[in-house]
Amino acid sequence: MSDVAETLDPLRLPLQGERLIEASAGTGKTFTIAALYLRLLLGLGGSAAFPRPLTVEELLVVTFTEAATAELRGRIRSNIHELRIACLRETTDNPLYERLLEEIDDKAQAAQWLLLAERQMDEAAVFTIHGFCQRMLNLNAFESGMLFEQQLIEDESLLRYQACADFWRRHCYPLPREIAQVVFETWKGPQALLRDINRYLQGEAPVIKAPPPDDETLASRHAQIVARIDTVKQQWRDAVGELDALIESSGIDRRKFNRSNQAKWIDKISAWAEEETNSYQLPESLEKFSQRFLEDRTKAGGGTPRHPLFEAIDQLLAEPLSIRDLVITRALAEIRETVAREKRRRGELGFDDMLSRLDSALRSESGEVLAAAIRTRFPVAMIDEFQDTDPQQYRIFRRIWHHQPETALLLIGDPKQAIYAFRGADIFTYMKARSEVHAHYTLDTNWRSAPGMVNSVNKLFSQTDDAFMFREIPFIPVKSAGKNQALRFVFKGETQPAMKMWLMEGESCGVGDYQSTMAQVCAAQIATGYKPDSGAKRC
C-alpha cells in the first residue's frame, strides 16, 4: 500500500476490500458515512460499486458509544428519507443527492427500495462494539460456545474493588511489620492499589514485559533488596575513611564538587549506613559518590577518583529497589481471576467478556465457520471512530473481513486522536491497520471552521515532520470551505485572531501553576472584552 493518502471522493470510493478513511474534525466524516451507506443500499458507483445492493440488516456500522450510535442511526435515516423524496421528485438542490440521482436509472424503483430501508431502520445493524459482539455471540451460540444465557452487567467496579480488597487481606495484612511498612509507603490501602491498576483490569490481560519469577514472594524480594542495601552500607563503612584523600588527589572539579558539600554528603551517608535497613529510601547524596557522577565532575584530562564502592553505588542505583512490580503483577493476575470466577458463579457477563468471548471463538478451531457466518450476515462493515480501537477489537474485525472476496471493511477515524489512548486505544493498532489496508484516504476540506483557524492549525502543525510523535501519523493540512470565507469571531465590533498563543514569561513552572495562571488569563480576557492590555497578566 502507498504511504500517500488519496483525497476521498465518497461517491467513487471502491466498495470492496479494506479501506482506511482519515477524517479530521469538521471534514464531514458523518456525511461521508451516510453517503457510503446510500451507495451500498442502491448499488451505486459504477465499477467502484459493491457487487449488489444491500439491505440495512446487511450493512454493519460500528461505533464506540451509545450516543454516537443513536446520532448515526438518525443521520442515516434522514439521508435515506431525503434521497427517497429526491427520487420521487427527480430533482434536488442537494449536491450529493444530485450526483446520486445521475446514477439511478429507475428512480421509482429506487424510491421503493429506500422506503423499505427507511421503515427497517429500527432493525439496522448500527451497533456499539459491545453490542455487535453480544449479538454475534447470541446469534451464533453454538459456534461461539455461548450455549447458556448469561446476565449482562454494565458496571464491574464493585466486583473489582471486592476482589482487590480480598487480595489485600490475603497478601498484605499478614506481612511482617518491616515489609508491610514498605507496601504502605507505596499504597495506603486497597483503594490506592486499585486506582493504580484499574485500567489494566479491563479488556485483555496486559502482557508483562519482564515478569518476576513465579516463585518469588514479597518476603524473598524484600530480603534481596535489604541485602543489596546492607552490602553497600558495609562497603561505605569500610571505605569512608579513605574517601577524602582519594577525592582530593584526583582531578575532580571543585567548582562542581566543593569540599564543604563533600563533608556534608559524607556525614549524611555515614549516618544512614549506621541505621538498620527498614526502608528502601536512599540518601539523595549517595548519587554523588557513584562512579558515573564522579566521572562527570572530573576535569578534562584529570584523573577520575575510582573505588569499588563507587561502582557498587552505581549498581545499586541502576536497578530499582521496589516491590511495586511484584505486587502489581500478582494483583493483576489474582484480581482478574477472582472477578472472572465470581461472574461465572453468578452467571454474569461483562462488556469486556463479550469481546474476549468473540475473540476466542474466532481464534478457535471452528473460528472460520463463525467468521464466515458473520461475513454472510454482514458483507460490509464500517467502523466509525476507528482510532478508539484496541488490539483485541481490531483482531476481531481483521479475522472476519481481512482479505475476503466480495466483502468490504471501511475503517473511518482521526489518527490524531489515537495518541491519547482514549478508552484503551492503541496508536500501534492504528498504524498496523494503516499498513495493512488496500488504500487509505483523507477528507481534505474543513466544513466547520473559519479560514483563519484552519490556516493557523495547518501552520502550527506543519512546523515538524512528527507533530504527533510518530512519523507514521503525519499531519495532513486541510482546506477551508468556500462557504466559510466570511466566517470570523467578532467581539464588541472587533475581529479577534483565529488563534492566540499564551506563553508564561520567566522560568518554567509546574503544570498546576501553569493551568491556574492560564485559566485566570483566559477569564480576564473574556471578562474585559479580549483587550490585549486589559489588566490580565501578560504572557
TrEMBL record:
The keyword Hydrolase is annotated on this UniProt entry: yes
Q: Which GO terms describe its cellular component?
A: cytosol; exodeoxyribonuclease V complex
The entry's ATP-binding residues are A23, S24, A25, G26, T27, G28, K29, T30
Point out the signal peptide segment. Answer: none
Name by which UniProt lists this protein: Exonuclease V subunit beta
Q: Which UniProt keywords apply?
A: ATP-binding, Exonuclease, Helicase, Hydrolase, Nuclease, Nucleotide-binding
Q: Which residues form the UvrD-like helicase ATP-binding domain?
A: 2-450
Pfam families given in the database record: UvrD-helicase (PF00580)
Gene giving rise to this polypeptide: recB_1
Q: What is its EC number?
A: 3.1.11.5
Q: What is the lineage of its organism?
A: Bacteria, Pseudomonadati, Pseudomonadota, Gammaproteobacteria, Enterobacterales
Per the record's keyword annotation, is Nucleotide-binding included, yes or no?
yes
* Xref: InterPro entries: DNA_helicase_UvrD/REP (IPR000212), P-loop_NTPase (IPR027417), UvrD-like_ATP-bd (IPR014016)
A Gene Ontology biological process in which this protein takes part is: recombinational repair
Q: Which GO terms describe its molecular function?
A: 3'-5' DNA helicase activity; ATP binding; DNA binding; exodeoxyribonuclease V activity
Q: Which PROSITE patterns match?
A: UVRD_HELICASE_ATP_BIND (PS51198)
